[in-house]
Every structure is written in C-alpha cells, then in structure tokens.
Amino acid sequence: MGRRAKNKQGDPQPLAQAQDNARPSQKKLGKRKADEVDSGAKRPAKKVKESAAKPAKTPAATKGKEKSALKVAKGKADQPKPKKQKQARFEDEDDGAGSSEGWEDVDEDSDLKTQAKSLFHDSDEGEFVGDLDDLDIEVGDENDDLLGGPVEELDLGSDDEDEESELPVKLKGKKSKQQDRPLKIIPTASDASSDESDEDEDDEDGPITMKNMEARSRALDARAAREAELNAEEMRLAELAGEESDDDLADADDVDMDEEGEGGDDSEGFVLPTAEEREEEKKRGGPDVHTVQRRMRECVRILGNFKKLGAKGRARSEYVQQLISDIASYYGYNEFLAEKLFQLFPVAEAIEFFEANEVPRPVTIRTNTLRTRRRDLAQALINRGVNLEPIGKWTNVGLQVFESSVPIGATPEYLAGHYMLQAASSFLPVIALSPQPGERVLDMASAPGGKTTHMAALMQNTGVVFANDANKARTKSLTANVHRLGCKNVVVCSYDGREFPKVIGGFDRVLLDAPCSGTGVISKDASVKTNKSERDFSLLSHLQKQLILCAIDSVQPDSKTGGYLVYSTCSVTVDENEAVVDYALRKRPNVKLVDTGLEFGRPGYTSYRGKTFNDKLSLTRRFYPHVHNMDGFYVAKFKVEKRTKVTKPDAVADTAVDMEEATEAGESFAFNDAEDQQYIEEDKRKRMRAKGLKPPPRSKPAPVAVAAVAA
Ligand SMILES: C[S@@+](CC[C@H](N)C(=O)[O-])C[C@H]1O[C@@H](n2cnc3c(N)ncnc32)[C@H](O)[C@@H]1O
C-alpha cells in the first residue's frame, strides 16, 4: 500500500525505480491508492492478467500471483520493469528460527525435558541449503563480466585498520551492477540519526571505485533514510487527516465500538458488508481477490478519517473487523494472528507490515573475524562474482549480498569458515551484549550458533562461551558451525535452559535468544501465518518468562567486566517481548534495563492495549521488516545487580525472593498462571466485542503477586 514497504524491500529493482519511490506522494494514502487502482485497471500488471484468465481462487491461494495487483495500487504499473532477477531463498543458519525454531505443539503435562524437545522441529538444517546460484541473472546483461570472471583492476588498497572504508572494489568500464541494487538495510530516519553530510561527496553516475565505495554506500543510506522520512511524514499526514487520528488507530476498535460514521463520501460506491453478508460470503467460498483488495483499500482509507468517511450507522469496529478478515484471507493468515499483528500498528502501517512479510529480506553474511577480515572476504567473494556491499555503518562485519554467480553457501570461503550466513537482525543481540575477551558467557538457547560464533569472535577466542540448546539434534549443527568457524573457546551443552544456573552459573554475560513464535520471520517461514494459536502464545510467553528468570539468575552480579543479560526474540508480539521483560523486572528487583547501545530500532512499548509496563521498557528495541528491511526482532539489555533480601510488605519483591530461593534450591519455581489467565480473558473479551458479541462480565482479577507466592 504505502510506498514505504515497497521502498525497503530487498527485491532487486533498478535504482531508477527506487529513486522514483522517493517522490513525495499525494497526501492522502487512500485517495492515492484509489486513483492508482484505476490506472492499474487500465493497465493491469502481468500477473493479474494471468490470474484473471484462470478460474477464480480464494484470495490466499491466489495471492502470490495477485499480489502484483496491490503493487499496481502502489503505483508500480507505470514504473520500469525491474531486471529479471530471482531472489535468493535460503534457510538462514541463524534464524532458521522460522520453522525450526518456532513453536510446536506442547504437551503441558510432560516434564521439562520432554516438553522442551517437543517444542521445536528437530532441525539440524541451520546450514544454508539454497544458494544464490538460483539467482536468475539476466542473460546477456552488460555486466556479465562482473559475474563471470575475476574483477578487473582490483585495487586492494592498503591494509588499513579501518576496514569499513576499505572494501576492495574497483570496477572498470561499463555500468556496474553495483548501481542496480535494491535498497539497503538501514535504520530509518524516524528512529536513527542519519549522516547525510557525505552524500554529495561522490558523483553517483561514475563507476564504483574502492575510493568512492564508502561514500556511495553512505549516500544510499542517506537517500533511503530521506525516503523513509518522507514516508513517515506521509503516514503522519494521512493519520492526522483523520479527525479520529488516535495515537494508535489499531486500538480504535476498542475505543470507538459504538461510534458511528457520519455518512461520508462513499465515492466509489463502496458499501461495507454486514456481519451476515460476510458470513454468507464466506459460505460461498469467500470473495474474489479483486473485491478483497478493493475492500482493504477502502477500509484503510475510511479508517484514516472515520468520522468523515465512515458510513452512517456503521461502527468503526465493523470496518476494522472487515479489514482484519480481508487481511487474513488475502495474505493467508489465520484470523487470530492477523488480528494480533494488526493491533501492533496504526492501520496503514499494519498493511505495510503484512506486505513486507511477503518479500524476502536481503541476503546477508557475517565476516568471521577469527579467520579473515571483511575487506579480504569481500575481495575474495567479488572475485568469484558476488555482488555485495557493507550492510551499514552499524556493523563492521556484515555484508549484504545482492547477487552471485556462485552458491553463497558453498564457496571455498564459506567452507573454510570465513563467514556465516546470518540475518542482519541476528547481529543485534550480540552487539548489544558486547561480550569481552576473557569473559565467561552463556548462550542459553544457541543452536545453530550464529550468535555463539559471533560472540566467540568478539571475544577473540578467549574466555569461554557455554553454548547451550535444549534440542540435542540442533546442537549438531551448532557444533559443526563452531568447528567450521574455528571457535576454540566454545563449550557445547544441551540442557533445558530452565536448569540454569543449577547446571552452572556465575556468568559475566548471558544471552537468551529465546524460543519464540517467529512472527518476525514470516517472510522466511510462511507456516507461522497459520500454525499459531492463542494457546501457543500463552505457552510461549510462559516458557520465556521462566527462561528469563533463570537467565538472570545465571549472571554473576559481581562480575568485574560485565553482569549483563540480553533477551531477544525474532518475534514482534508484545506477549513475547515487553510482557516478558516487564515480568522479569517485577520478579527480580535486582535487575534494571539499560540502553542496548544499538543505533536504531523503535523503542519498546511502555503500554499496550490497556496494559502498562515499566517506563524503562522504552530502552528496549523493536525492529520491523517494513521499517528496517530486516527480520522482525526484539532486543532488551539488563544489568544484573547484587540481590538484597527484601522485607515482607512488598508483595512483588516477596515473590522474587521466594522464586529465587526455589531456584537456588533446584525446585521448579512458582509461576504466575493467574496473571496470564487474566490477559487471555481480556483478549477474548476484546475479540468478542469486536465481533459484535457481548462478553461475559469480568471475573474478579486474581491478586497477582499473592497468587504467585501461593503457587
Ligand atoms: C531462536 S533459536 C536460537 C538461535 C540461536 N541463538 C542462533 O543465533 O543461532 C531458539 C532455540 O531455543 C532452543 N530452545 C527451546 N526451548 C529451550 C529451552 N527450554 N532451553 C534451552 N533452549 C531451548 C531451540 O532448540 C532453538 O534452537
């Protein structure tokens, strides 16, 4: 829908097109889209034509093909056709998190170990299986020389310390593919500072040389940041245009349940179906994809200015419900998850998020500094025909791979452990934890080892990293990666994380990259769209809360160099992130949140849908596919201090002491089910209300802390 999602995707597209995206657009998102649909109708995108010629399918089934129709709505129809180029699809060895690390059915009654084993696909397949060889590089392309043979006139430059500015590329002659790149992974202007000062340093039309490479890269960053700013501004304007523009339009279904529209302009004859009509429609097999697309656009437009545009007698919640239902069928989610994710964003932005999940993220690799330097690795890969560039200023080990004539997961450099295929987002928790040479570090849920090996490298193979994972099968790929990357300071073990610190404790730093639902990596694992239920989220959240307390208790508060815990997930839901961190803060008064040190990312929620969290939750960071062009991710950093005995009157502290004692005694500690139950019930009530049903009266809330103590 908005240009924003399109701008940041990893889809290869000509630079010209990317620049087009930066054009200031018309103010009103809805109007713009409506107009563009018209033009799209005159000149439908190819895939729309194809599917139109075929028997009608349900939206979810046809979406892959029909998706271009939405892109027409974004104004793509008039843009130059991108160069034919397949996106690399591979299983990320780190955040193969998707299917392999996501939640599976859990037997609540089984014991710790059995349960932990049953939670996840037993996948050893952290290793890269696809390859960039799959890239369909346009035959006869004028830049084939870049891909086919060694790069000419490579200027290796000096072995400067500052490797960031020394990527060894000097491409000669014809226009380079380096200029036809998709937009980069960047922090957006809205949540990070951008340095635009260098952007004019270099003539963008000239060939890329080693000298101008960094400036080019910065200019790209700056341009993308500017575009992002424009997009954010557009979004703000669109929302301000609505008199209803609550801070969070997604919440409006709760707020405005009974409010009715004033009978605004139904300019295109759009009539919102009633609940009965929707049911009828479903029985008939659902609407055709064009109807769904149009309805989604209309609902977004109307919800952007509900008071003016909402039809008389219709409640805001009816539009919201329709939109969620259409999102679910169009993008292929179950309605529960569609609603859960929808609620995270203002309406228009939610669509961007869902759109971004349809596009693969950029392929990225992390230089293994135990074996090589980034500039040398870049040189070696360029010589093999790999088109790459540094990821961004925030990492000096990451490279973004644009295209390659060789399988990127099977190059001699890969086999020799010079790099790890790793999602850019998964660099973040390690950067935040910042393990130091000589320290004792625990990676509590570590397979297949993307972060373990990163930490080992930062520690320069000194000290020790305990790489644990409950899933024994997955520790095989972990061990393989540890060997391949030459990590000599890693001890691999396989315990349920909840057995720490009983197994071993006293770590300077702990990373808990928790098992999660994988809602941040839907573009890698579409099964998440349909296989997550409400129960899964509450069980996961429960497990995460248990793990985080054990992680905290495994940190040595007296550590001379550290005393830190980083909690991360590749999920964007609040239950798995802020709710878990907030819980930890309440249960462990000896920890506090500190700045992650990450340069970008949106602040974590301090309140969400009626629930208030600790103010310091704003120090945690959220990353989104549609904003940062990386997997959805969450990072929180804690400083663990010495525990002090707390006096009785403080119920929460009391709980903490009890739990602490229980943990130390090796007992499974009290867990606050009553509290979770309250949230589950509240959620149910909201969804009933949204569906026009009257929820039963609230049951008396359980006295939270006391319940935990008693349990
Ligand atoms: C998000 S993945 C970890 C990815 C890893 N940190 C990396 O960077 O490659 C979560 C991991 O948690 C493991 N896991 C699940 N339940 C666990 C538990 N109770 N204790 C320890 N590990 C667990 C899963 O087997 C899975 O490998």
Brief overview, please?
By secondary structure, the protein is an alpha/beta fold.
Quick one: how many beta strands?
15
Number of helices: 28
Proportion in helices: 40-55%
Largest sheet: 9 strands, mixed
How does the helix and strand content classify structurally?
alpha/beta
Based on CA inertia axes, which overall geometry fits? globular
Low-confidence stretches: 1-182, 186-190, 192-210, 241-258, 650-672, 701-711
Distance between the termini: 49 Å
Overall pLDDT score: 70
Bound molecules: S-adenosylmethionine
Radius of gyration: 26 Å
Percentage of residues in DSSP E strands: 5-15%
Q: Which helices and strands occur, and which strands form pairs?
A:
Layout (H helix, E strand, L loop, with lengths): L2 H6 L6 H6 L8 H14 L3 H8 L5 H15 L23 H5 L10 H8 L24 H5 L61 H32 L10 H4 L19 H9 L5 H16 L1 H4 L6 H16 L3 H8 L4 H10 L6 E5 L6 H10 L2 E7 L2 E10 L7 H4 L3 E3 L6 H6 L6 E4 L6 H9 L5 E5 L3 H13 L5 E4 L15 E5 L14 H4 L2 H20 L10 E6 L8 H10 L3 E4 L7 E2 L3 E2 L2 E2 L8 E3 L1 H4 L4 E8 L10 H14 L8 H18 L13 H7 L1
Parallel strand pairs: 5-6, 5-8, 6-7, 8-9
Antiparallel strand pairs: 1-3, 1-4, 2-3, 9-15, 10-15, 11-14, 12-13, 14-15
Helix pairs in contact: 3-5, 3-12, 4-5, 5-12, 5-14, 12-14, 14-15, 23-24, 26-28
Bound molecules: S-adenosylmethionine (SAM).
The site of S-adenosylmethionine has 24 residues, from α6, α7 and α20.
